[in-house]
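[Q] Does anyone have a clean structure-token version of this?
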Amino acid sequence: MTSKGHNSRDAPRSGELGLSDILDLSWGWRPSILLLQAHTSGVFDAAEGGWKGADEIAGKLGADRRATGLLLDGLCGAGLVKKSGGKYKNAGVVERHLVRGAPDYRGNILDLDRRAVSNWLKIGEV
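[A] Here you go.
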């Protein structure tokens, strides 16, 4: 915290990165991977239309219930899915743009992003 009670992350930058900036960069890929995995595996499609339990979503996907629940909880942390009483539903923006068949579907960009990730992971081959 700064002397004015503000989080140091909100303080003006001196131009030099701090350790928290480096750690943010290091961890920054995690929400993207959650998003891409949920899209690719059809989680958003399976959760379409309202509150569903992890069992129901996993059943629609033919997936493991525990793993599906962990993925859904991660998506909740990212704000992509909402949870109440042990049930999940897509956030409004996900319902509008990431459920296949939605009038304003934009998920194709995530398919491109997923392919790009595999190319970026080969950067060590340069």
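[Q] Thanks! Anything notable?
[A] The helical segments are 19-27, 29-41, 43-46, 54-61, 65-77, 92-97, 108-120.
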